[in-house]
Amino acid sequence: MFVAPPGYQPVYNPSIPYVGPIYGGLRSGMSVYIQGVIPHEITRFNMNLQCGESEGSDIGFHFSPCFDNWDKVVFNSCQEGEWGSEEEIHNMPFSKGDAFEMVIIINQEGYQVRYRDTIYIYTL
After folding, report:
1. CATH number of residue 100's parent domain
2. I need a labelling partner for 19 at 20 to 30 A (CA). Which of 11, 25, 55, 99 fits?
3. How many domains in the chain?
4. In whole angstroms, how far apart are CA 103 and each of 68, 69, 70, 81, 82?
5. Where does the record place the Galectin domain (predicted)?
C-alpha cells in the first residue's frame, strides 16, 4: 500500500471526474501517484494535470488511454484554449476491469508516466 510522505495530502476515493488542488503546485522533480480500477463499460479515460480548477484552465498534461478499437494512448496539452500537437502511442498496456497503479513524474523536459514496466515520455 502506498503511504504519502509527511506534508502531502492524498485524496482517497474521489468522485469522478475529480477536480481538486495539488497544494503547493507541481514542479520539476515532483510526482503524482494514481491508483484505480478501469471500468468495463468505458471507451477511454483521461487524466489531466490542469493549471487551475476552473473549466477553462490550461492543461499542462493530458493523458488518455483509448479502448475504442484504436488501442492507443494519447498525450497532449492545452494552452489558452488551444490544444497542442497530439502524440499517440499504439501500445495499450491497460485493460478494462484491471486495477492499476501509475506515477506521473514532472521534469524540466515534460512528463514521464510509469505504469508496470512501461515508461511513456511526453516532451513539452
Report:
1. 2.60.120.200
2. 99
3. 1
4. 24, 26, 24, 26, 26
5. 18-124
**Domain carrying residue 45:** 31-123
- This prediction has a pTM of 0.85
Query: What does the pLDDT read at residue 108?
Result: 93
In a domain, 1, yes or no: no
* Contact by Cβ (8 Å): 20, 53: yes
Task: Give the mean model confidence (pLDDT) for residues 112-123.
Answer: 90
Domain assignment present for 104: yes
Q: Across residues 71-92, what is the average pLDDT?
A: 92
For residue 46, give the C-alpha cell: 483521461
Tally Cβ neighbours within 10 Å of residue 112: 16
Residue whose C-alpha cell is 515534460: 110
Residue whose C-alpha cell is 500500500? 1
Q: 115: which strand partners? A: 102, 118
Average pLDDT over every residue of 56-84: 92
